[in-house]
Amino acid sequence: MSNGYTMMLKAGLLLLAAVSFALFTSASVLAHGSKPHGSKADDAGPVVKEQTLWGIAGDAADVVRTVDVTMGDDMRFQPASLRVKQGETIRFRVKNTGVLLHEFVIGTPEENAKHAELMLKFPGMEHDEPYMAHVDPGEVGEIVWTFNREGTFEFACLIAGHFQAGMVGNITVAAQ
To answer: Which of 71, 80, 89, 120 has the maximum number of C-beta atoms within 10 A of its C-beta?
Structure first.
């Protein structure tokens, strides 16, 4: 092969690598940008309230208490378990003390496990629900949630590998 052809081939491979990198990083940004999941601050409309097995999006005016939760690169939440009364509307203030991105997602153990498996297969998957807060390092996210059903639920970080590393906490909702 001629030296000119080899240089063109190398330049083409470098261009392909650069385009691939740009596409990969932009897909990650689209899926998990700096805006926390469930944050409707920049959206035109209000939070869509949809009943789930673990409750419904709450109104800030109905908050009865605020629960501060920290999450970090040790793949743990503090506190790791919470007790709530059925009917309570809670404001979760979730601080990411790590250097990695983390999530705080409320759900049933089954739903969170299913979602975590999907995140392993499709780590760039976009999702934005009122029971999710995606929090950049050093930042604080917020969720307002009404627990209108009794039961045992959980909060988890569903970013690929985090759930599998044990980044899960429990919520017990007791009947009134």
So the answer is: 71
How many Å apart are CA 87 and CA 58, to the nearest integer?
A: 10
**Mean pLDDT per 10-residue section of the chain, whose length is 176 residues:** 53 41 36 40 62 96 98 98 97 98 97 94 84 97 97 97 97 94
Instruction: Tell me, yes or no, whether 94 and 105 share the same domain.
Output: yes
State residue 152's pLDDT score: 97
Chain centroid to Cα 25, Å, comes to 18
Burial of 86 (0-12, 13-18, 19+ CB in 10 A): middle
Q: 76 Cβ partners below 8 Å, 6+ apart?
A: 166, 167
**In terms of domains, do 1 and 56 share one?**
no
Domain assignment of residue 13, given as a range:
1-31
| Residue ranges of E strands in the chain | 56-57, 65-71, 77-78, 81-85, 89-96, 102-107, 132-135, 140-146, 151-156, 168-174
Q: Look up residue 3 and give its amino acid.
A: N
The pLDDT assigned to 47 comes to 67
